[in-house]
Structure formats: C-alpha cells, structure tokens
Amino acid sequence: MKTHLKKLLPLVGVVSCFSSSLLLAASHYGGSGNDACCPTKKPEPVCAEPCNEEVTRMKVFEECKYREITPDAGPRVACGTDVFITADFIYWATRMDGLGYAATNIAGVNVPQGSVSHPDFRWEPGFKVGLGYNLPHDGWDVFAEYTYLRPSASDSTANTSRSMVRLWADPTATPFENVSSARANWDFDLNVIDLELGRNFFVSRYLTLRPFFGLKGAWTSSSFKITTVDSLDATLGDVVDMSQDFWGVGFRTGMNTVWWFNKYFGIFGDFALSALWGDFDVTRRDANTITVNNVVTETTTSNTKNCFSSMKPVFEIAMGLEGDYWFSDDQFHFGAKLGWEMQYWANQNQFFSLNEEGSHGDLSFMGLTLRFRFDF
Length: 376
What we know:
Blueprint lengths: L1 H29 L26 H6 L20 E14 L5 E5 L7 E4 L2 E2 L1 E12 L5 E10 L2 E7 L3 E5 L12 E21 L1 E4 L2 E24 L5 E25 L4 E28 L2 E33 L4 E18 L11 E15 L1
Antiparallel strand pairs: 1-5, 1-16, 2-3, 2-8, 4-7, 5-6, 6-9, 7-9, 9-11, 10-11, 11-12, 12-13, 13-14, 14-15, 15-16
C-alpha cells in the first residue's frame, strides 16, 4: 500500500500545479481586480497600432513609418554648407575620322599601291570645373560642370618616287591632277556644360551607386585647311579651307559607381548617354594659288555653305581609382579620382566634298582624368 502511495505522489503534484496555474490565469484575466498585483484587464503592447484598414502609403510616408533601404552615401560633412567644388585636369588624345587629305601611289606598277595621309593628332591638356550642392531632401544633389579642350593636328607629305592625288579637290576647277606636296591643318575647340540631378546611395556595405539625369549643352568649332602644290609647276597650287560650327542641347543620363575596398579607397566606373539636338554651320572655300617671288596670291573659285539641324548621340565611360578623406572633425571632405576616360561623339565630321554630302566620320576623346573634390 505504501508503495502505491509513493507512485501516486508525483501525479498528485502535477495535477496540483496545473490546477493552480488555471486558477491564477482565471484570476489574471477574469478576476474582480481586488488583488493589487493583478491588473483588471490585459495590457496592450506599447507599440500596438489600432486596426485601420484605410492606412495609405502617403500616411505611412508622412509619419516616417518606413525603413530606408538605400542609405545616403554622400559624401557629406558635419555642420557644413553642403556645397562642394571640383577641378579636373585632363590629358586627352582626340581623333576625328575622315580627315585623309592625300593619297600616294607607287608609279610604274599595274596595280596601284600606296597609302592615305592623315593629320597627326597629338595629346592635349584641358580642364573641367564643377560646382555642386547636397540637397536636404533624401540625399539628392545637383551638380554643374564645364569642360574645355582645344586639340589640334597637322601633317605634310611630299611626292618623291610616287604620284600623289588630292582627296578634297574641287572637280570643277582643278588646273592639275597630281601634286608634289600637300599639307593639312586641323584645329578644334570643345566647350561642354553638364547639369545633373542625382542621388548617391549604398546598395551594400562596399558598393555605392549614383544614378543621375539632366541636360547637356555643347558648342564646338573646327577648321580644316589643305594646301597642295602642282607636281609639274611649283608656282601653282590650290587651297581648300573648311570650317564647322556646332551647338546642341539635350538630355543626359547615366550612373556613377564605386566599389570600395574600405572606407577610404575604391574602384569607380562611370557611364553616361546623351542625345543632342543642334545646328551645324559648315562652310568651304576653294582657291587657286600662284607663288611669285615667295608671294602667294589666292584666287577664290568657290564658296559653299551647308547649314542643317540634326540629333547626335554622345557616349561617355570612365574607370579608375577613387579616394575620400575627412578632416577637422568631419567638417571638411577631400576626394580624389584618377582614371581613364573615353567619349564618343557620333557623326561630328560634317566637312563635305563638292560632289558628295554627308558625314565623313565620328569624333572621339580618350585619356587621363585627374579630379579633386572639396566639400565644406
């Protein structure tokens, strides 16, 4: 009998504990409230919101009840004006297609063999300057930048054992077919203004993106002059003098990306696309020359002008290294970028032959770009 009672004692203890728990729960939720340690009703959670099926996205936005998934990546400074300036040194090579000015052929062969002479393009320095402002709205920023470059190219060739023909000759007023020497000079002025509205943000701890859109404005001026001398009479020659002015404005969009190694250094990759609607103003003057006692006299044979409007695309891409540094308790920021930049301007060579109209080639830039940025 004692053995059976010992076996029942644990069961009685479990039943007693379970009954006590039920009584305690009943007194907690349904009791009279006489016990000061037990509240009369179940307390609501502090963060609980009343049920409201009419909560709209605008209401959530106004009450800031959302989680920022793309934090602002700045760079921003403490207690500053949110203004920043940039200065770039560029050292670019320029190429314009379709500027071959003379063709040489080996004399006395059945099948012509030779080459085309082109202006010798050189590397030229230029600059960019920019001004920006970090808006107090969701990390947006506005930025304006001006670019200036003035490249040039020249070349000359002489006829020794080869025959030479002109590629830009006036077919209606040519006193000779072959030339003994030719020289070409090309000059170009580039002016560009870019306006951007963008936002720089983190998509991960070490990757930032800055999509942007805005406007691009450009005005360019170029000249191309070819001088040749007759192979039979060195006192005779001709001149083809052409000029081209272009201005255009249009939309521009793109993205700046930085792949950070740590807080201070990373690799950047940028690209942009623009569509410019603008006007071309192209002129051509042809003249015959006579040289007597080292005095050159020109006789104009034709003046031709071609003006039209067209839309031209512009592609930009760059890649390199970038670094950021804050100082004076984060009240100032200094940034630097060193990279290789390339730009492609489609159908920018609108110089024309008198028996042919249309684009002769594209314009391209490539080279080193060194940028400094200062935020204050």
